[in-house]
Amino acid sequence: MRFDNLVPISSRHRDRSLRFGGGTLQRATFRFGIDLIAENVFHSARRHFHAGSPALAFGCARLGDALAVHYPYLFETHEGDDWAFLAQSLFYLPYRMHQALLEGTLQRVRQRLEASDCCPNGARAGLLLAIANLYQDIGLWAQAERLYERILTIGPPPSMHADVLRRRAAGRLLSGVNHDSMDREFRSIVKYKANADTSVSLAVVQGWWCLLTGRPERCLRELAPFDFDEEAPIPAPMYSPRTAIELKLVQAAAYTALGLSCGPQLSFFRQHSRNRLRPVSTEYMAPLVLDEGFGDVLAPLRDRQVVVPGLLDATADSVLAARGVNVSGRPIWVD
After folding, report:
1. For residue 144, what is the enclosing H or E element?
2. If residue 323 lies in a helix (H) or strand (E), which one and from where to where?
3. CA distances from residue 55 to 2, 93, 137, 281 in whole angstroms, order as listed
4. What pLDDT shows up at residue 61?
5. Which residues, including other chains, have CB under 8 Å from residue 7's CB and lie 6 or more apart?
6. CB 297 within 8 A of CB 264
7. Helices 38-50 and 54-70 sit at what angle, rounded to 10 degrees?
8. 60-77 b/e with 16+ CB inside 10 Å = b?
């Protein structure tokens, strides 16, 4: 996967003529307009992600980060936009894991915190959630659990609160907990569900739980309200590609456990093989409930894991040490 030229800026947004001023070559500049403002770039990032292009989603978030820092007025930024774009970058990276980009993004978080001892509370919670999820992706359950607990004390927005509880539940499934504890865990998340993706993602984790406890029929009941036709021209348009694939993956596992055919699901995976799932799903959850016959299905959905615990530890400590401030900034999506 190549990451160069992720977001080619249209010619209408570039001043391509290089001018000499007093004998000095002047750099070309952006031409800002209604399309190239913070609001549109922020939404473009999410549209790219939902269209199955996480690399372009990251590129938009990274572009927004740079423009919000260097051209805040021309880019029409709101207070806290620089932090929101930075947090969004960390959320999109794991779906096309890339060592240099991840290290660079973590370094920017630390550099920005070194320049300012405070951080908007929403962005602070978002950065910690992104880092905790990365800990899960490399199998460091205790570190992830510690951060999830700290985020809940910050008081994140409802949609983020739901995702913290969902990811914490996934980690506890993998680290081993008793039946009653997980039942309480899932009941605690219901009141925080805020959108279709969040609801489906919760059903997916509950489906894993049912499969791990030998209840494939219950798994299918949990997934049923969110099911969709795999052969529809536009399947599940309200879900992100990652959510749709994970739903069908859990459904296929349940059908297999019941001795039923999962042909439509396998066909769906092949049609969407250019997408990627987070390592916590492909490397940790899937092997527990899927037999070896799914190896070929999972292979194209996998991406290599990047291990940077040193940078993660240092960045997490920097964010935790930062002073949180109340800023009415943009909501940070945790796709």
Report:
1. helix 141-154
2. strand 323-325
3. 9, 7, 18, 19
4. 93
5. 56, 59, 60, 62, 63
6. no
7. 170
8. bbbbbbebbbebeeebbb
Contact 216, 257 (CB under 8 A): yes
Residue that is written with structure tokens 């530890």 in the block: 313
86, 131 in Cβ contact below 8 A? no
- Residue 105 near residue 89 (C-beta atoms within 8 A): yes
Amino acid in the structure at residue 163: D
d(CA 230, CA 252): 12
pTM for the model stands at 0.86
How many Cα atoms within 13 Å fall on the side-chain side of residue 126? 28
CB-count burial class (<10 Å; 0-12, 13-18, 19+) for 151: buried
Higher pLDDT, 179 or 26: 179
Q: Which domains does the chain have, with CATH numbers?
A: 35-325 (1.25.40.10)
Among left, alpha and beta (phi > 0; psi -120 to 50; other), residue 331 is beta
Helix pair 81-92, 121-137: axis angle to 10 deg: 10
pLDDT in tens, 91-117: 988 877 788 888 999 999 999 999 987
DSSP state of 87: H
The letter for the amino acid at 188 is S
**What tens digit of pLDDT does each residue of 174-232 get?**
887 666 778 777 877 776 666 788 889 889 999 999 999 999 999 999 999 999 998 88
